[in-house]
Design goal:
Blueprint (H helix, E strand, L loop, with lengths): L1 E7 L2 H13 L5 E13 L2 E14 L4 H11 L8 E4 L5 H11 L15
Antiparallel strand pairs: 1-3, 1-4, 2-3
Length: 115
């Protein structure tokens, strides 16, 4: 299981993305919460109120989830990254799997080469 993290400039945009990504079963759960971000952009220190979109999904779902986020995101360079969950309640992990589906047979997305 992984947690995917991105931010949006408005709560409305983050919530719209959350609904879409969960409806598409790319994520089992989405949480939206406000934050204040500080970052360099175009050579200047910026300070913006943003809304974090946190998505819980399976690791093999990441490529499709990232593509979907990048397709709908209003920023030219959105942050999109994932944290691997090392421990979780087994029932919650099973629920995430049940919501996001089984890896298609023959799919190697998310697998590592054993060379």
């Amino acid at each position: 299981m992984i947690v995917v993290h991105t931010t949006f400039p408005s709560c409305k945009q983050a919530e719209k993305a959350a609904r879409l990504l969960v409806q598409q079963r790319l994520a089992a759960c989405a949480s939206v919460y406000p934050c204040k971000s500080f970052f360099f952009w175009e050579g200047r220190l910026q300070e913006e109120r943003e809304f974090v979109l946190e998505l819980k999904t399976q690791e093999w779902r990441y490529p499709a989830l990232e593509r979907a986020i990048l397709k709908i995101h209003p920023y030219s360079l959105p942050q999109v990254f994932a944290f691997k969950v090392h421990r979780s309640a087994p029932a919650y992990r099973n629920w995430v799997k049940s919501c996001t589906g089984q890896r298609p047979a023959g799919s190697s997305a998310g697998r590592r080469n054993s060379r």
